[in-house]
Inverse folding.
């Protein structure tokens, strides 16, 4: 395995060397065979080939997993699984903070059924910093993670190229001023691993100190006093310790790490901050379901390419369009001319889907999806020409083309969130979008998808009327 990683690292650090020889049997052949077996194992836990992809792609790409009683997937330890361990007391001996929060949860049992769940929810929110800190520390930095980050940064370089090409094509959408501002914004957009925020979150000493300030006795304190003290948490921190007061209140009360919501660092593969014009990607993106360094890059593009492109389009959504390349609020970035065209184009999505769900909640997401899939697919097409190993075959899925596998991996990134409750997957909506509905909206508007799966016009996944924004 170590030899695999060393060779793989060389292939990513020196991509020109890899691109010329990767398909030769004497160079990385075993690595690719290993990666294809991994991909086969991962796909087998999700894909249901018995379903007609043109009728129900959600169940085609994710049906096997959806029909499992035990939805825990081998090799996918996520935050929900971590929380099961927390509640079972597995870490009580390793963290005084987690032990205290678990005792506080038990205290909620003193309340009647009508108030108990609300109490537990409040305690869980109070303890989220401790839970997240312990979870992040378990995601150790390894050569494999480092190699994955290198691979993703390489992917981002190609996404930026495709993004700029797309913007330059949209002369009917962007006037000269708006196009100039948007291209400048892409050129200056920063792409970072969320290490800075994670490092603060990972600091065990600081985390334990924050919870040590909070006084709680399971024997002496009643539940009402506990809840009241939680509301007044800041008062427990000595005024002289100003640094801890700011830090602890941010993490526990505001659930933030330097202004970034902790859930962004735990629940998402990536997130974009318009006020910084920066896109951050998390270590959670490096897994068997999204971006694995052993997989074909074309296969990875389905998840990581789509996810990153989607987040980049938030730089130009209803909020992002009002920030310039430095992250400063500036309503002149997008002219009134382009705003009017944006509004007119968005009406298609409101007309097609607005009656079913709150269009104000999902419109920005729909448009980011609409652009994200276009960029990811362009990345796939460009990659087929650029990469010398675009003909790799995944065992058990030999009949599927690389393009079909690309779309399957894209759908898998939607049907299961990075750290959702695997026992209740349908309870977790994405920005107000039920997953099956979101997959349908993303793919049914793609002519390339319909062509890849040979879906006839009028079938569910290839309706006659489509919406295109970007």
């Amino acid at each position: 395995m170590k030899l695999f990683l060393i060779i793989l690292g060389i292939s990513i650090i020196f991509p020109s060397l890899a691109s010329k020889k990767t398909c030769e049997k004497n160079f990385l052949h075993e690595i690719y065979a290993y990666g294809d077996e991994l991909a086969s194992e991962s796909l087998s836990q999700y894909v249901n080939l018995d379903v007609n992809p043109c009728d129900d792609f959600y169940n085609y790409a994710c049906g096997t997993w959806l029909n499992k009683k035990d939805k825990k997937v081998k090799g996918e330890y996520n935050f929900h699984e971590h929380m099961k361990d927390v509640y079972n007391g597995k870490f009580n001996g390793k963290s005084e903070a987690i032990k205290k929060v678990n005792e506080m949860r038990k205290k909620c049992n003193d309340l009647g059924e009508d108030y108990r769940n609300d109490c537990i929810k409040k305690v869980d929110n109070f303890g989220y910093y401790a839970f997240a800190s312990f979870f992040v520390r378990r995601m150790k930095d390894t050569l494999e993670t480092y190699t994955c980050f290198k691979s993703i940064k390489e992917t981002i370089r190609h996404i930026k190229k495709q993004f700029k090409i797309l913007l330059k094509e949209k002369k009917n959408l962007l006037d000269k001023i708006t196009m100039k501002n948007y291209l400048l914004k892409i050129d200056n957009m920063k792409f970072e691993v969320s290490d800075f925020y994670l490092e603060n979150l990972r600091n065990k000493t600081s985390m334990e100190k924050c919870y040590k300030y909070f006084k709680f006795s399971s024997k002496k304190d009643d539940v009402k006093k506990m809840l009241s003290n939680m509301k007044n948490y800041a008062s427990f921190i000595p005024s002289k310790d100003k640094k801890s007061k700011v830090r602890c209140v941010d993490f526990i009360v505001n659930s933030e790490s330097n202004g970034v919501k902790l859930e962004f660092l735990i629940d998402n593969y990536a997130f974009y901050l318009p006020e910084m014009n920066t896109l951050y990607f998390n270590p959670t993106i490096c897994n068997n379901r999204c971006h694995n360094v052993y997989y074909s890059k074309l296969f990875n593009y389905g998840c990581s390419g789509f996810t990153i492109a989607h987040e980049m389009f938030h730089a130009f959504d209803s909020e992002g369009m009002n920030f310039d390349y430095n992250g400063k609020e500036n309503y002149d970035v997008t002219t009134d001319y382009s705003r009017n065209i944006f509004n007119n184009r968005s009406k298609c999505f409101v007309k097609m889907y607005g009656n079913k769900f709150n269009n104000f909640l999902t419109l920005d997401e729909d448009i980011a999806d609409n652009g994200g899939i276009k960029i990811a697919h362009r990345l796939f097409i460009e990659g087929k020409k650029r990469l010398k190993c675009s003909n790799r075959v995944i065992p058990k899925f030999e009949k599927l083309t690389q393009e079909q596998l690309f779309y399957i991996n894209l759908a898998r990134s939607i049907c299961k969130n990075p750290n959702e409750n695997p026992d209740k997957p349908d309870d977790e909506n994405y920005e107000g979008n039920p997953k099956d509905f979101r997959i349908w909206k993303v793919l049914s508007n793609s002519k390339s998808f319909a062509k890849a799966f040979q879906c006839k016009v009028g079938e569910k996944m290839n309706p006659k009327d489509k919406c295109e924004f970007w």
About this structure: The chain has a mean pLDDT of 87. DSSP finds 20 helices and five strands in the chain. The CA atoms of residues 422 and 431 lie 18 Å apart. Residues 359-386 form the longest helix (28 residues).
